[in-house]
Amino acid sequence: MKNNRKTTKPPKDYQNAIDRNPLEFYISEKTPKYGPKRPFIVFYDDPQHSVRLLKGNCIEILNQARENSVDMIFADPPYFLSNGGITCHAGKMVSVNKGKWDKSMGVEENHKFTLEWLKACQRVLKPNGTIWVSGTTHIIYSVGFAMQQLGYKILNDIIWYKRNAPPNLSCRYFTHSTEIVLWAAKNEKSKHYFNYQLMKKINQGKQMRNVWEISPPSAEEKRFGKHPTQKPVALLNRIILASTREGDLVLDPFCGSSTTGVAAVLCDRKYVGIELEDEYLTLSVKRLKDAIVKRGTKLFAIEELVAL
Ligand SMILES: C[S@@+](CC[C@H](N)C(=O)[O-])C[C@H]1O[C@@H](n2cnc3c(N)ncnc32)[C@H](O)[C@@H]1O
């Protein structure tokens, strides 16, 4: 009997095209490990503006991605703080519940998870690539320890200070008003990129220090909908401008509403975001499309980007 099934041969130049296009970083078609079922779907793809969103578990996706293909990673992982505590939101006492993804699995399981995704990120980073990871006390020590275990080279710990932090309702602690952002290079041999002059310029000609005062996201940044742990675009603009060149590929493995992607578009970098939840991917698409239109109509001055 004749077999009518079409075999789709990859075009001749396929592997070369993958090698040339860093946005194809996740494809390892030479030796696909995932068989006929990919561990992700491409949720949004805009090759013209070098933006792509993948839906799936970042560890699975990164473990099958091409090695040494990403210039910079920003990761805002689950902080594991949605465990029945209370906080103050808009002047009211509310329970901390960011989502199922933010529930603690216990100290050891949490650390295992941190090690796993950090290892997956390290593999895809280019030899001179760097990673930024944000966190509070709940996870940042585990992140720092995991980085040391994996042989990352820690470059800086940035203290992100939020002037308008909500008050501490229990009055038994100092008011939490900071987050830490660790910056690390792939390994000890890496020759990381740092735009020292630009950082000095935007800091009125003085060396920039590791304490950054940046306000939480404005209402304008949430006009397409809210993510419970949305980061301010100004923070990501500064990170991207400090550690990447125009045209570099920036990856966010826990992209949420794609604040990293918005900043990447505004700063003319390529972007790949990975996220589990449809709701946040849909919000990401709206924000990314808006950023693409904004960028299309205007070339932002550096000062404007860091103060956005
Ligand atoms: C802290 S939030 C990131 C918020 C983001 N920085 C923003 O500005 O919108 C973490 C996100 O990671 C997603 N997430 C959790 N575990 C994941 C996993 N294993 N793979 C991919 N995404 C994951 C959650 O759904 C959540 O949206």
Description:
The protein has 308 residues and is an alpha/beta fold. The protein is built from 9 helices and 11 strands. The chain has a 9-stranded mixed beta sheet with strand order 1-2-11-10-3-6-8-7-9, sandwiched between helices. α3 packs across α4. It binds S-adenosylmethionine (SAM). S-adenosylmethionine binds next to α2 and β11.
Query: Strand sequence of the main sheet, in spatial order?
Result: 1-2-11-10-3-6-8-7-9
Number of domains: 1
Beta strand count: 11
Looking at the structure, the CATH topology is Rossmann fold
Question: Could you tell me the mean pLDDT?
Answer: 86
Unreliable stretches covering 5 or more consecutive residues: 1-11, 27-31
Structural class: alpha/beta
Major beta sheet, specifics?
9 strands, mixed
Layout of secondary structure:
Elements: H1 14-20, E1 40-46, E2 51-56, H2 58-63, E3 70-75, E4 86-89, E5 92-95, H3 107-124, E6 125-135, H4 137-150, E7 153-161, E8 178-185, H5 196-202, E9 211-213, H6 233-243, E10 249-252, H7 259-266, E11 270-275, H8 278-297, H9 302-306
Parallel strand pairs: 2-11, 3-6, 3-10, 7-9, 10-11
Antiparallel strand pairs: 1-2, 4-5, 6-8, 7-8
Helix pairs in contact: 3-4, 6-7, 7-8
The site of S-adenosylmethionine (SAM) has 19 residues, from helix 2 and strand 11.
What is this entry, summarized?
The chain is of the alpha/beta class. The protein is built from 9 helices and 11 strands.
